[in-house]
């Protein structure tokens, strides 16, 4: 059996968009294979594998290629931020955004849209595809996500989606989509509201009393140190609420370890409430008042968002990065891997490894949206202290596994809300580490977005691995599939159900940055390290700085664009 490890390099095909130096060269196909450290490895599914191993190009939709081609042609004609024809002369650009994930593309799009006349912007991307963690796949009648499965439909991400023409493609899942937690052999629906928590059977009677008293402030006072999520929640709401509610939540957002995650950094919105009102309940009332006072009129293009819904796009999440990339005045430079940064007379010099050799850009401002471990590497020479701090952000491995069972193999669950898959309503289920199931959680993909798989098929997305199970990634595809199926037999399936159809296993050797105790200090120290090295024009915009939610990185890209432009203007003055 193949034993794929986290250190396995990924060879990225180049035979797609090649959009550099000269008018002629974009058509050229470079045969050179390129190793991209930090790029994520994709294991092809056992079902649809032919010819796709290691070649990400095939996943890039023809539509997006055509769109980028059109934009490319426009950009070349207008000579917008066109790179120099000679590799020896450094190109000059006002803002370079490193990384064409959701954050970088939103940042570049916003700068171009709002400030495009005054400020030039270029996006550079190490891989041959845009989207970063957002990697939707379509094979035959199935469409599935390998990274994020959906987003919280906050106004910023919805507004950006409308701006780039996706208004009609926004999908909001059934607002009654239950989140289930496995507890003592049964799946139990997570309380959807405080009233549910009080009157439902998710917590025992003593557990409810403890949580209720703690929430109104009858609990030990905050200690004089940064608490972990486990400490903070156990102190405020009791051990039971922690184990049944918050421990699985930490898996479902960070794939993390709640004994290590920092309360102020990882669950800042809840942590803040205690300080705001003296207790969680008083703080929530105060925060509600503040939110009402600060509410802005809502953009009329945005859909109404009801209940516990989550969002995506027709065709999958990748539609957003593709639409952002297509709306840029000059397309992202794919296969441009940043290797180093240094201070230059007119700003910051960026050195790239590209299929045409080494290229250099000098920028007034640089926004690094690549992961912290990449930022650490490229800053080694120019800012050793910042580089050292950036190497400390921890990203555990996670695998995402999408499979299909026929509807007939599911048991009728005790919760009475129907089995996964239409017409059963549900978002998915989480498995606390204490419950003896290795899979972290399962998204009911075909319940959430039924048009992504044929009727009668139940498509499930599993996440497995994380901060408390780091050796999972060393297992073979067959072993991972067998583990997922065993776990499904425990939680969902009729005994004797046969192995499912496997659509794909995606290995994320470094998945999600952990906002562990000390995270806020690391963030401050990383910024200070840059400033001490004289790199004031280099901005850290990765999700380890902004927050991990997809909606949050888009919000950052949109809202921080003005600050970057302001900085550029001070440099031009
Ligand atoms: C398995 C998984 C599940 C998730 N589930 C959810 C979810 O359900 N909901 C949710 O809201 N969020 C989820 N997230 C989190 C969310 O997807 C990410 O936080 C978000 O997509 C990060 O976007 P970004 O643009 O900040 O970074 P990235 O997407 O990491 O983009 C950074 C880009 O930088 C590029 N790059 C790297 N090195 C270089 C270099 N040297 N030179 C140039 N470019 C470089 C990368 O190739 C990449 O394209 C999930 C994440 C993972 C991994
Ligand atoms: C089990 C692994 C993971 C699942 N999703 C993620 C991981 C690591 C990543 C993730 N999920 C959410 C976010 C965004 C958080 C935000 O602030 O918007 C991220 C980065 C959303 C989310 N998913 C679940 C919950 C409870 C949340 C928070 C907000 C919400 O209620 O929607 C639950 C959940 N996540 C996963 C599963 C299987 C699952 C089941 C109920 C997968």
Automatic annotation (TrEMBL):
Biological process per Gene Ontology, one example term: protoporphyrinogen IX biosynthetic process
Pathway the protein takes part in: Porphyrin-containing compound metabolism; protoporphyrin-IX biosynthesis; protoporphyrin-IX from protoporphyrinogen-IX: step 1/1
The keyword Oxidoreductase is assigned to this record: yes
GO cellular component, one term: chloroplast thylakoid
Keywords: Chloroplast, FAD, Flavoprotein, Heme biosynthesis, Oxidoreductase, Plastid, Porphyrin biosynthesis, Transit peptide
Amine oxidase domain boundaries: 103-564
Recorded catalytic activity of this chain's protein: protoporphyrinogen IX + 3 O2 = protoporphyrin IX + 3 H2O2
Region (Disordered): 412-431
EC number: 1.3.3.4
Co-factor: note: Binds 1 FAD per subunit.
A GO MF label: oxygen-dependent protoporphyrinogen oxidase activity
Described function: Catalyzes the 6-electron oxidation of protoporphyrinogen-IX to form protoporphyrin-IX.
Entry similarity comment: Belongs to the protoporphyrinogen/coproporphyrinogen oxidase family. Protoporphyrinogen oxidase subfamily.
Listed name of the protein: Protoporphyrinogen oxidase
Species this protein is from: Cymbomonas tetramitiformis
